[in-house]
Write a structure and sequence with these properties.
mainly alpha, 10 helices, magnesium
């Protein structure tokens, strides 16, 4: 909770580095909480007689406030570093707190794509999509590190997770994510987890080739793109699958 959100925790709560890898199993649960609050913001906007697009913006705004734009910042940093030619230069740009043109444009398209997907859905689908997408996206981090050979770049938070995720963590996290998505049916949610998990590992392999390892920004990008991929799947792929079942 302290790592993924800006929600206040009990004063006695402390984040210990040795507990970070086992805590990955609960990442989908934190995503579920973010999704529930976002869906509540969407429903509240509709109850106040605002249009569906305004409700979508309210939901996205709620998620950004809850997370402190944690993953959006990482995505923008990655977009800025994309234009560099060496791993060292890419990492240097990504660690720079200033936002460049690539970062601004990339972040705009990420948020616009999400907003357009949600606004184009039937209203009854939006709350469930808002709930399931953050949950599956946080699960993608767990899938990325299970038995993965990926190493962390120097001085990165990824060192807390790399090579430390067991089958127990994976199964607990998968159970949480799958249970959340059962509203869409067993076949669609199984395919969704398989697709998002595979995409997250491919993305991690790409980062390793580009940067020489994984950084905290890489995890943020994995979450951001996994959430977008989940929204695409729930809005377009699921109806196609159900048509043939």
């Amino acid at each position: 909770m302290m790592f993924l959100t800006r929600l206040p925790c009990a004063r006695w709560a402390r984040m210990h580095t040795e507990q970070m890898a086992p805590s990955l199993r609960y990442f989908p649960l934190v995503g579920l909480l973010i999704g529930v609050i976002s869906a509540a913001a969407y429903k509240a906007a509709l109850e106040c007689r605002f249009s569906a697009p305004v409700g979508v913006l309210a939901a996205m705004g709620a998620a950004i406030v809850l997370t402190g734009a944690f993953h959006e910042d990482a995505f923008a940093d990655w977009c800025d570093g994309f234009g560099a030619y060496t791993p060292e230069k890419r990492l240097e740009i990504m660690r720079d707190s200033r936002l460049g043109t690539f970062g601004v444009v990339g972040l705009f398209f990420l948020l616009a794509f999400k907003a357009a997907l949600l606004a184009s859905m039937p209203r009854s689908w939006v709350p469930w999509t808002l709930i399931v997408a953050p949950c599956v996206a946080r699960w993608a981090v767990l899938a990325t590190f299970y038995r993965s050979p990926y190493r962390a770049v120097p001085n990165s938070t990824v060192a807390l997770f790399a090579g430390k995720v067991s089958g127990k963590e994976l199964w607990i996290g998968t159970l949480l994510a799958a249970t959340t998505g059962l509203i869409y049916g067993c076949v669609p949610i199984a395919g969704l987890l398989l697709g998002v998990g595979s995409a997250s590992r491919l993305l991690a392999a790409y980062f390793v080739r580009q940067l020489g390892g994984l950084s905290g920004d890489c995890l943020g990008v994995i979450v951001a793109l996994s959430e977008l991929l989940t929204m695409i799947a729930l809005s377009h792929v699921r109806p196609f699958i159900l048509h043939f079942l």
